[in-house]
## 1
Amino acid sequence: MSFAASPECTWINGDEGASLSVMDRGFAFGDGVFETMRYRRDAIPLLEWHLRRLFDSCGRLRIAIEESLLRDEITQFHRAAAARLGDGIIKLIVTRGVSARGYRCETDAAPTRVLMQFPLPAETLSWNAEGVAIRYCDIRLGSNVALAGIKHLNRLEQVLARMEWSDSSIQEGLMTDARGRIVEGISSNLFLVIAGRMVTPVLDTCGVAGVMRQYILDEVCRGMSVPVAATACERGMLAGSQELFLCNAVAGVWPVRRLANKSWPIGPVTRKVQEHVARLFGA
Amino acid sequence: MSFAASPECTWINGDEGASLSVMDRGFAFGDGVFETMRYRRDAIPLLEWHLRRLFDSCGRLRIAIEESLLRDEITQFHRAAAARLGDGIIKLIVTRGVSARGYRCETDAAPTRVLMQFPLPAETLSWNAEGVAIRYCDIRLGSNVALAGIKHLNRLEQVLARMEWSDSSIQEGLMTDARGRIVEGISSNLFLVIAGRMVTPVLDTCGVAGVMRQYILDEVCRGMSVPVAATACERGMLAGSQELFLCNAVAGVWPVRRLANKSWPIGPVTRKVQEHVARLFGA
């Protein structure tokens, strides 16, 4: 595993640069949101889905981001990024901006916009083909309806979850809520295939409402004519499922091959979902 | 209310400067902790209490901060700060450091150390004398035993809580857990005086274990020979208490004068606690 520690390029509020104010509320409080988008040379295929979640999240957190300014900036950044590297990742961070010390914030603070370009990580793509082995994480997700679904910058639970193992034969961890119900992967969402239907954990009290999860719910399942539901997921449901897969907007779909002492083949529903998603990224 | 947007002085990893890498995990994930310390010209009175919490928190989050390096840096920073301004605030932030994109972190990442100097906010001190009016916040604190007590950088709940009101006659908000039990103020801890005993909410599933709270528990109550306990606090207990006060390491002790439709005088126990704390800061 290699670490590419620095982005290929970074813009902060439209200007090239890689440093930000120590008084930015993103740093002080995790007071912001982010999107991690996969791009092709000619487009960012799920851009509208990313922006819908971002603007919705900013609305819930009352971060007054200017939509047209951000759209223009992403378009320009993508053009410059694609000229350097034909496909890759654009990470977008929006914070409430710079303010004085303390939780209170002037209502006229200008949000901070950060755009970063990264290459596609090779191993996450190979996991598409081979599937992944996963584990249960010990740390639980705290519940808060005010924050549920938002891809915000308060991610200590995920950081601690990812520190629970270093065995490289395990690729992802499953996170549960305080009651032990399955919520999501550390950086992915989960789908189960049970008796020809698809199920994904409901995210009404915790978890990140992933863009790829939403795309699969709204578009892929409809295209495949497979019934799908977001419900509470107990551990027992996983053992009883014929297929499991994880998804996110960068990696697409990872078939789950192993969890605890249970194994799964890469099943036909998972393959079909992968085909739909592969078309998005022109792969 | 005036906002002093910038610190008087900032050191990052020992060097003067006010900007940090966009790849710092404090910014990406809130992956770090902080302390807000009040200093006099000759000392930082509660320094050992702050450091004990910080090192304990870093241990729980597995942030490998070098203790002697940090101690030396704080000593030097305090000396320089006191030369500029006889008393004030030193805010210390320690993050896991800079890493590649993604939750996983190299084990050898070097923590980032930020020291900032601010003047003492005038109004928080006047609240010592006059007391404060407070309100209940709507947003609840999520529970997570892995994070409970730590003054970490994941503070969106506090940010949203402080946005719930703009009425300047209300100075602080009380936060409750998912079950409605009182936990703390947004930036302070709570004590109740009931029938000559002191009570403070227990912080085993959420909340920040404040340094001033700990000092009052360990030193002030002993000095005053007042029995004290950390217990679960239902709302009804507040209505039945003879005195209420809030505390933090910067402001000291704020008597609570009003909450919802109940009023309190500034009582004798609160006054005694204030006298003990005032001696710390030489006020």
## 2
Amino acid sequence: MTAEAFCAAVDWGTSRIRLWLLSRDGTVLAESRGDEGMLHCLQTGFQPALEMHLATVGADASIPVMICGMAGARRAWREAPYLDTPAALSRLPGAAVRIEDAGRDVRIIPGVAQRRVNAPNVMRGEETQLLGVAKVDESALFCMPGTHCKWVGVENGAIVQFSTFMTGELFDVISKHSILAQSVEGGGFDSSHPAFERAMRRGIASPASAHSALFELRAAQLLGYEGVRDGAPFLSGLLIGAEVGSARALYRSQRVHLVASGLVAAIYRTALEVAGAEVALLDAEEAARDGLFAAAGAVWP
Amino acid sequence: MTAEAFCAAVDWGTSRIRLWLLSRDGTVLAESRGDEGMLHCLQTGFQPALEMHLATVGADASIPVMICGMAGARRAWREAPYLDTPAALSRLPGAAVRIEDAGRDVRIIPGVAQRRVNAPNVMRGEETQLLGVAKVDESALFCMPGTHCKWVGVENGAIVQFSTFMTGELFDVISKHSILAQSVEGGGFDSSHPAFERAMRRGIASPASAHSALFELRAAQLLGYEGVRDGAPFLSGLLIGAEVGSARALYRSQRVHLVASGLVAAIYRTALEVAGAEVALLDAEEAARDGLFAAAGAVWP
């Protein structure tokens, strides 16, 4: 297997790491994933975690590694300074920072910064997904959900403007740490759950009123209108609806390229379509892998 | 001192208890406060906590006790079932639930429920503050900040409509449990702090965009535009501004009676005035005490 291996591609998030061993034509030869995200590695070191996952896929020391995400944050493994908007996606591979003492060729793709005093913003990881999915010279709007959802405007192959909604993290902290924790039961739901759809439509129609609708989740249960099983779909629908409603100006005149996977893809797609958007779905994990592969091909031709 | 004591008034919150020994004319003879709120007493019992605070103020077994707040919640000391909107404030004293086995005359004032499927809501405690500040037959709008901020419409002396903003609790969970915890330093600030005022004005102008502005707090610090000392004022200003902006339809045509104390009073007053509201400030603690005293006078004439 290692005979045909070309490089390893690593998506290094805050709490997770995903590594793929790729051939010259982009075929996935092996993969490894785990909980050795940035937060973990700040304690235990980045290089041991990387070598562990490389060993898992059988990559010897000749295999170079292309990384995106939080390993390049300021106090993480090695800072990969942001490219500023407008940031041409084609500049990302050449701007990757090489880690000199890694024992092999290891590079980290930089994030992107929007240095506007009235709309400051940063991303790490999404720029590589965009490199994987956006065509050269493309102009398009991308919605990239996750713990933090990025809405990114790409013009002529460059990131020109973006905003961040902390929707996933708000769901997490509200459902775990607020009084609503009593009203939200864990476990999955589908995007056709009545409480999801009702709250989502309300958030879309009036994003500003989501703030006062939060407590109604609890009141509805105290008064017997809803049950604890409706809590997670309600809260999720309300927050995603408010995000999609608030972002409406962005997609009024153009298709939304939704970069997502699994349940998150399904519920964002539902919300976007209810809000009147035309949606093109792209798989988030493939996007990251394709972006890393593209960067590797540019750096190691 | 006990010779002239008439009753004890107790504001029993989720996390705090405040008790006043009052004379027939409403004079405060003594007071006691502590952390024996509902959450504490669910573990240790309500009656022992009450008797401890009564002993602190020297109230013998002949002194009756009027209570408002969370002691009357469903799984707390004894449920005081909600009055439904429209709820005449004058009906509150007579609806107080007597605890038969308390060894003295102890009553809990009920909360108020808004039984509307599309806008369910409940309050416990604020109804008693309104009894303390609203005049008979008054029609007015009240803004009552706290962990949860209630906006209450009173017409002809009855609570007819209300909504709840979890602003205080959102500040708490976001600043403690989200990624923004790294960007928010504890400690006070005043309502003229530049970051407070800037974020507040933004929230007022566009409540729906507060959702995407949250992350800018972190980005502004990463990019060097702001420091960690700006975090708490920014987050507080953004959330309060979004609340005040979202509630604008309520106060466009009428004065806002702000029932609050201390820093909370100052920052809500600033936000309301920036949003164009005319504000009349009423002290929140006095409101609760006056409401309990009014109820005691009605029940024990």
